[in-house]
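>> Question from a student workshop board

For tomorrow's exercise we were told to take the sequence and the ligand below, predict the bound structure, and bring the output to class. My setup keeps failing. Could a helper post the expected result so I can at least see what it should look like? The ligand is tetrahydrodeoxyuridine.
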Amino acid sequence: MNPEELVQQALVARTRAYAPYSNYFVGAAVWADDGDVILGCNVENAAYPSTICAERVALTAAVAQGKRQFRAIAVATRNGGSPCGACRQVMWELGPEMVVYIADESGLYRTTTVRELLPDGFHKARLLE
Ligand code: THU
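>> Workshop helper replied:
Here is what the output should look like for this input. Compare the format with yours to find the bug.
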């Protein structure tokens, strides 16, 4: 799995997006430590706040499949939009060392990290102090 392949998987996931309200289709592909790739897409809802983002679908599905360690995530939108704050916090929780590839619909992407996207995120250790 290389970055280009992960981005291609995010583009595949994007074709499955359910976004009849915003028409903003998002796909995500998370690369787990064991080599598996788990896909997610945004799933909207007529009760708008019930919508869930592609990144959180991918990461929560991966956890449900028993994955705990992640190397990278690719996110694809029509124009290279970057992950929302809630998704950044979930990335921080589940894959703080992940590399993040942010792609547009043509597959062009930029590379960043969870730590760069969310400096000083809320850390679980705080709950134990
Ligand atoms: N969306 C995502 O899937 N990921 C993000 O990080 C930002 C926003 C979705 C949610 C909604 O379905 C649509 O994009 C417009 O906000």
